[in-house]
């Protein structure tokens, strides 16, 4: 294969490979026992602060609290909550607690509308029935003396009329 016929190779790296989310690594140099994840750094810093402020309480125990602290830093190296790192999980819980209980529609808080009275009228008019000559005639529906129409639904009456015409 000559220089003019070189095979072109294209590589695409994910953002995680281009910018790994670990701290304490610059080029080939790393912090001692590092690199550290952000969760490890929070436990490291928070634990150091707590141990310094409470020295009078735990000083009688010797190096045990310090060993537990370093063990906690090591234990959170791959910590995940529901498949997410702890910071995004805490951020999600925080946003859930701060969210309006009614939710959002189109970016705005969803609120119930003010109740209002429905004011409507309706008029029942007799239907026009076309006769064989195409002249419009008015159909008159008689209502029994009780004020109610015959029993059964309109569909039942239509089916009964259709069965009577077919016979």
Task: Give the gist of this structure.
The chain is built from 6 helices and 6 strands. With 167 residues, the chain is mostly helical.
Shape: elongated
Query: Uncertain spans, ≥5 residues at pLDDT below 50?
Result: none
Q: What's the tally of helices?
A: 6
Which structural category fits the helices and strands? mainly alpha
How does the SSE layout of this entry go?
Blueprint: H1 15-18, E1 25-26, E2 29-30, H2 38-53, H3 55-58, H4 64-75, H5 86-98, E3 104-105, E4 108-109, E5 128-130, E6 136-138, H6 154-166
Antiparallel strand pairs: 1-2, 3-4, 5-6
Helix pairs in contact: 2-4
Characterize the structure shown:
By secondary structure, the chain is mainly α. It has a domain at 24-79. It is built from six helices and six strands; from the N terminus they run H-E-E-H-H-H-H-E-E-E-E-H. The chain has helices spanning 15-18, 38-53, 55-58, 64-75, 86-98, 154-166; strands spanning 25-26, 29-30, 104-105, 108-109, 128-130, 136-138. The protein has a two-stranded antiparallel sheet with strand order 1-2. A two-stranded antiparallel ribbon has the order 3-4. The protein has a two-stranded antiparallel ribbon with strand order 5-6. A hairpin with a 5-residue loop joins strand 5 (128-130) and strand 6. Helix 2 (38-53) packs antiparallel against helix 4. It is elongated, with a radius of gyration of 40 Å. The model has no long low-confidence stretch (mean pLDDT 77).
